[in-house]
């Protein structure tokens, strides 16, 4: 028979998608069995899977509704425990949709309620259908092992404010750190944290390359001797953790930096001159900043080579001596080499001592401002 | 109404007796839904009762409800089968198994105040639009 091939008992047994086991699954499975048994006694021979699930869901809701309504009626009467009359009232409420005998009676005793009578009728008529499985008592309550109190142990509670009937404190070994065995682990942790920090740094963009180099040099001496071996090992495996190269170690192509980083770089390198500028008050602001504007206008094209030379010459001397804001003055002047003679004096400055520096510097500024005024005339 | 008034005034105690008898009879009747299951779901909604008879009462009431819904659905199913059969192969068609389907169930539940809507079809398999009893789910 072609029909026989397509008949289903309870839907095809597809592998169910893995669901998280919840507390309801266990109970719902049993409800499905009970509902299926009831339907079978009514005359059904098979079910659709979704129909069975829907009906079992309705069953659960029905039971919970009866419980809720009975509880509400009990509370209304000032009791916490429900009794039979609360349930009968709940049944009446739920049965109003379908209707029962005597529903329209205003005053009627609950004991003679139509719902009860119908129930008695049902019990008398229908057959008993025993449940297919034997259920254990659920949910299972786990026996808690309570912590014994101070009195039970026989201990004195530490401190007067703690009564003896409270549970005792746990063993200090379970929560406190002991000193000697753990020192090594903390050291290792610190080393790991430092390595992590060093690993994060190379991820910054090239724009911050100089800052990174400077900061890395500063941090170099802070690495402990104990971690040196670790650093070496790490350096061998990871190129980003290697110690930075000193100037002249490796042949590198010249770096072309935009104006901004060029400025920041020069703050670190133009140091012998920085100290002077705290004294340089008589130069007017406009004069001081015209080279600044000029440098911006001229752009990288003219000043590229000069920048490179400045960089390569002065890179090793990193001295962080950040003075007042007027360091910009010096840096701007450094970075606007409109004539090559300026560069020569730039390198020459590194060798002179301070006082001579100030003198030369003053002359230089005057020359520069004159030169700029000439340029302005050109413009 | 007279009958009721008479009941309430003279034979009031009979009702109580009837009720207590009924509850006693419940202990003999084992409902299909086991007691532990009913207690579990009742506890979820805050129902507290040490009396087992009350639990049995709820179980029986639920069983009656399900039985009513199932019988309504069965009537729907049979009515549907009666209208569908038109072929020459009458006997074979009528001997078809009675399957509880979502359509019959939703109609039966609707009378009891439960609104169940279900998808008519999912267009993801070749057996769409066939007789629901005979198609694979």
UniProtKB/TrEMBL annotation, chain A:
Region named Disordered: 1-23
Record flagged with keyword Transmembrane: no
SMART domains: BTP
InterPro entries given in the database record: BTP (IPR006565), Histone-fold (IPR009072), TAF8 (IPR037818), TFIID_su8_C (IPR019473)
SUPFAM superfamilies: Histone-fold
Any single Gene Ontology cellular-component annotation: transcription factor TFIID complex
UniProt entry tagged with the keyword Nucleus: yes
Domain Bromodomain associated: start-end pairs: 24-100
Compartment(s): Nucleus
Domain of life (superkingdom): Eukaryota
Compositional bias of kind Basic and acidic residues: 1-13
Record keywords, A-Z: Nucleus, Transcription, Transcription regulation
GO molecular function, one term: protein heterodimerization activity
Alphabetical list of PANTHER family matching this protein: TRANSCRIPTION INITIATION FACTOR TFIID SUBUNIT 8 (PTHR46338:SF19)
Assigned protein family: Belongs to the TAF8 family.
Protein name: Transcription initiation factor TFIID subunit 8
TrEMBL record, chain B:
Any Gene Ontology biological process: transcription initiation at RNA polymerase II promoter
Location of this chain's protein in the cell: Nucleus
Molecular function terms, GO-annotated: promoter-specific chromatin binding; RNA polymerase II general transcription initiation factor activity
Alphabetized InterPro entries for the sequence: TAF10
Pfam family, one: TAF10
Top-level taxon of origin: Eukaryota
Protein name: Transcription initiation factor TFIID subunit 10
């Amino acid at each position: 028979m072609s029909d026989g091939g397509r008949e289903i008992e309870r839907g095809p047994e597809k592998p169910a998608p893995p669901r998280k086991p919840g507390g309801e699954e266990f109970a719902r499975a049993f409800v499905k069995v009970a509902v299926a048994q009831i339907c079978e006694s009514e005359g059904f021979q098979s079910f659709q899977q979704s129909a069975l699930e829907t009906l079992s869901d309705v069953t659960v809701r029905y039971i919970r509704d009866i419980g809720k309504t009975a509880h509400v009626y009990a509370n209304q009467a000032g009791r916490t425990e429900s009794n039979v009359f609360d349930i009968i009232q709940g049944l009446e409420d739920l049965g109003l949709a379908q209707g029962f005998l005597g529903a329209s009676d205003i005053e009627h005793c609950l004991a003679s309620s139509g719902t009860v009578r119908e129930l008695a009728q049902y019990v008398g008529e229908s057959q008993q259908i025993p449940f297919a499985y034997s259920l254990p008592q659920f949910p299972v309550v786990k026996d808690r092992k309570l912590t014994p109190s101070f009195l039970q142990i026989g201990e004195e509670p530490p401190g007067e404010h703690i009564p003896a009937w409270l549970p005792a404190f746990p063993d200090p070994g379970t929560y406190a750190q002991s000193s000697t065995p753990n020192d090594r682990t903390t050291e290792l942790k610190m080393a790991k944290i430092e390595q992590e920090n060093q690993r994060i740094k190379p991820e910054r963009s090239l724009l911050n390359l100089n800052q990174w180099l400077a900061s890395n040099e500063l941090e170099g001496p802070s690495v402990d001797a104990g971690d040196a071996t670790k650093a070496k090992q790490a350096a061998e495996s990871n190129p980003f953790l290697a110690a930075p190269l000193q100037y002249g170690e490796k042949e590198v192509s010249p770096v072309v930096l935009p104006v901004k980083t060029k400025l920041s770089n020069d703050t670190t390198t133009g140091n012998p001159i920085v100290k002077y500028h705290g004294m340089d008050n008589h130069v007017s602001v406009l004069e001081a900043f015209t080279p600044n504007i000029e440098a911006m206008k001229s752009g990288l094209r003219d000043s590229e080579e000069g920048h490179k030379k400045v960089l390569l010459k002065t890179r090793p001397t990193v001295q962080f001596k950040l003075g007042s804001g007027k360091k910009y003055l010096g840096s701007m002047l450094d970075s606007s080499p409109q004539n090559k003679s300026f560069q020569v004096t730039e390198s020459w400055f590194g060798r002179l001592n301070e006082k001579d520096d100030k003198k030369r510097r003053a002359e230089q500024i005057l020359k520069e401002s004159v030169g700029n005024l000439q340029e302005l005339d050109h413009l | 109404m007279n009958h009721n008034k008479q009941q309430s005034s003279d034979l009031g105690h009979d009702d109580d007796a009837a009720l207590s008898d009924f509850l006693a009879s419940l202990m003999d009747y084992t409902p299909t839904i086991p007691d532990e299951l009913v207690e579990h779901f009742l506890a979820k909604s805050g129902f507290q009762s040490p009396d087992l008879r009350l639990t049995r009462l709820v179980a029986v009431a639920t069983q009656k409800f399900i039985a009513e819904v199932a019988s309504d659905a069965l009537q729907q199913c049979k009515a549907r089968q009666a209208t569908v059969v038109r072929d020459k192969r009458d006997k074979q068609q009528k001997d078809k198994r009675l399957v509880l389907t979502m359509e019959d169930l939703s109609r039966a539940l609707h009378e009891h105040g439960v609104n169940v809507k279900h998808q008519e079809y999912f267009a993801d398999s070749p057996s769409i639009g066939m007789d629901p009893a005979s198609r694979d789910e």
